[in-house]
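Re: export button greyed out
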Amino acid sequence: MPNHRAAALDFLNAQEHVALERLTQLCSIPSVSTDPDHAADMLKAADWIADQFKYIGLDHIQVFPTQRHPIVFGQYCADSIDAPTVLIYGHYDVQPAAPLELWHSDPFTPEIREDRLYARGASDMKGQVVAAIQAVEAVLKTNPLPVNIKFIIEGEEEIGSPSMPQFLREQKQILSSDVCLNPDAGMVSPTTPTISYGLRGLAYFELYVYGPDHDLHSGMFGGVVHNPAHALAELIAGMHDDQQRITLPGFYDSVRTLTPDEHHEFSRLPVSRESYLRQTGAPELWGESDFLPQERVGVRPTLDVNGMISGFTGAGSKTIIPSQAMAKISMRLVPDQQPAEVAQQLRQYLEERAPKTIRWELKDMQGAPASIADRNHPAAQALAKAMEQVWNVPPIYKREGGSIPVVGAMQDILGVESVLTGFGLPDDNIHSPNEKLHLPTWYSGMKALVHFFYNLVEA
Amino acid sequence: MPNHRAAALDFLNAQEHVALERLTQLCSIPSVSTDPDHAADMLKAADWIADQFKYIGLDHIQVFPTQRHPIVFGQYCADSIDAPTVLIYGHYDVQPAAPLELWHSDPFTPEIREDRLYARGASDMKGQVVAAIQAVEAVLKTNPLPVNIKFIIEGEEEIGSPSMPQFLREQKQILSSDVCLNPDAGMVSPTTPTISYGLRGLAYFELYVYGPDHDLHSGMFGGVVHNPAHALAELIAGMHDDQQRITLPGFYDSVRTLTPDEHHEFSRLPVSRESYLRQTGAPELWGESDFLPQERVGVRPTLDVNGMISGFTGAGSKTIIPSQAMAKISMRLVPDQQPAEVAQQLRQYLEERAPKTIRWELKDMQGAPASIADRNHPAAQALAKAMEQVWNVPPIYKREGGSIPVVGAMQDILGVESVLTGFGLPDDNIHSPNEKLHLPTWYSGMKALVHFFYNLVEA
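Workaround output, generated via the alternate export path:
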């Protein structure tokens, strides 16, 4: 059906303005899942997606309520009995936009500058969701394709997909599929199509350190009580040794050793000290010196303070010993680390290191293990071919530093493998101010998805 | 003139309700000197004091403008040529009230619970200023006293009295005095009148640590860039060794050694591990183990983080590597440390310890050296006698952990010694939520001041 494929691609090209309009509409909804104040925006975004599903011709459209934010479902059933079924995963929630003062345009008023669209969620992952909608629409509105398509678009990915496991269990029947297409990963460069086959897990905590029962005058009590900000600093500083290794007891015990083959593959990735310095603006790189930078984000676990606060942080000077200090601490996990395991290691570290001069409390926020997908899955091969058809080079395979808990959940609960890809770029500033999406790459990505669907059914 | 003294004391007693009304009015003005938003309140407080000066019968009343907040002056000139002159110092500015949520009543709506008045500034030091006004009024409105009295009440003490040196130089003539009464210190207990003869100095800084030029996705970049929150934590943790000694190079070089006599005197202070634990609510004491707690706040220099912030501190989880981290760091100095000297030591520490993986910036906020007053000054003896006349025990002499830069400035510029006292208590929560003033002790303090004036001229 080459003419069918061509027709779908023509339709896609003719619809670029619609794609942009849809992306603008979706990015205008501040669907910040972690912030209770945005609960109404979450519903608005979910309904908007359900409307698009209806418009492009899906049926059995449902907005499933959860404990927090709804999951949107829609499907297309092919006529033929033996049509393969592709489950397309996405999320409509985004990270908070703070700090607002660093944005050059309003995070929820999408603005195009040069060939990029700037908005929170443009790249992670509203752009990817719209790309999938465009590709499916192009296929459905031109010629019927012997592929069943199911969408689930959730609203809790940025908070660890807490509702997803129960949803997958409850809706196992309607979600049964041959493969999951998950475009929540990204490309390493605009000219390098990328398929991700590994994801790091995540464990997120809040650590509270309590000292005196109220803020104290630092002149009257400086020197007699342990300052909680110092105690927290000491605990954080001790979490890495001078080799930048994490010191939690047993932290690396279950971490797989890197094989020579993997090392060889990592060394071929088109990244370098210079490219990392350019993307981050950091004065120098940091981390375990016996691993390549791309290995440190790919196959090594990491620990980061995501936020830290204590005492008086306003303008001017206040001479106090703060009564408490807090840090948000998260770890990126690799096979075969378990969130519960590292949580216990962190507790043990605190029990061993925390002095009697302070009290501490550790709050477990979220956790998901790492996952590795099958690179040789037929769908992965169909996608690889599709990417080469668009970019004229075969995709590279990488392990993602980020975490997508749903991938593991789908393996465990649905028994469905995920094919991880996406059309965002490393400098898209996702989770950061001035998040952006490179539109030419985005349009190419839609084409690749159309090819992907046809490659699934054409030898 | 014993009947004169008695008349003044009777007048004072009859005016207690006026004293309370004045304190309530002054504490209702949110005169937070460090916050530009309160500039108008600062003027309001200064004018209110000038009005009281007029009412109690002072003349030459002036509100001197400064770079930031005005200084209020007023005086009483005795008839006799050889009358001694007492300069009464005070400040009408207060520390910020934050964190507001920890206050049980509005910090600027004074509320009496049991025998205490709760309000920001009630103890530090609006209550002390009103006490001095009450005592002077009682003396002036009963019988003329052969003592010249001059008041200067400034509005920048809580930000380090930056305008005071220039003011003292410019107004040297009108400020010429025999002694300065400074009631900005406090008592160690309600039954222990206290004269402070030493004050610690202060050096205040903001330390900024910069890493990547924007917040980064901790999954994409965790493990390759140095997290500024970690780097700041490492720098703060390194500022104390495991003996709780400060590690800045040369920090203790100019610190005077404690003499056996001083140690003996400190050991007689009515304070203990238990009293410090009770006042602070800390789980355990902390600090240099080879010094008594009261020595650590009295004669030893200390370093405290007063505030610290980095990254995402809102509700929920955000998985970023923050682009920067900041800490407010202040040191309490003792003789013979100089603020410029410790600032240099901190810079050297940072130059030696800060890694190349981050950038840092140190902002010098304020500084004042420590000072020691003459305990044998005739005015100090007059005050000691006055206190014994009220509390029936002689005062104890202590060195204050806090800092009152103006004391040193008066010694250097005016050549005037200060007698340091005050009627606040260690558990007044000054600089903390729920600051309060113990009213019975406050009324006793006013009486002591009346005795003080009479003791100055009566053998």
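Residues 201-255+301-368 of chain B form a domain with the Alpha-Beta Plaits fold (CATH 3.30.70.360). The button fix ships in the next patch.
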